Task: structure prediction
Amino acid sequence: MKTSKILSAVSFILIVMLGTASYAQKTKMVGGAEMYPTKNIIENAVNSKDHTTLVAAVKAAGLVETLQGKGPFTVFAPTNAAFDKLPKGTVETLLKPENKKMLQGVLTYHVVSGKWSAADVAAAIKKGGGKAEVATVQGGKLWFMMEGKDLIIKDEKGGKSKVTIADVNQSNGVIHVVDTVLMHK
Result:
């Protein structure tokens, strides 16, 4: 009788552990494609039809190898629609080889070192009394805040971007999809 209770308890613990592990490895849909937590940022991003501009920009900037690296990285990934909000001709200008450094600056402004889940961001906002400041890989600053139930990122120029899909886990970090390109000074 005692052995069966122990076996039942062990079975229950294993079921909970396996269920938790399976939950942690769930995919999210971004741009019509599943994003796999076992793949890196680039391996996933190339499959999102909503991020073709971002992927083209990452390639033009020579950042593919970096974003395939160990990390961890937190990437605020603007959608194609976010790039479309920029003044006409901006994307085309940034993609020119002579503007590679400028493009690198724009893109690395969307990257923060470490893995910042939405819960981590929320905790930082709470600790900061409603706002949290973070340094980007580019060297600039971003500010996180809440507007109602929306997680908002404010850039150095005062622009705001809303996180539309949070916690898209990657093998080397996390992606948060945003609706506006963030701009630094």
Notes: The longest strand covers residues 160-170. Residues 71 and 172 are 5 Å apart (CA to CA).
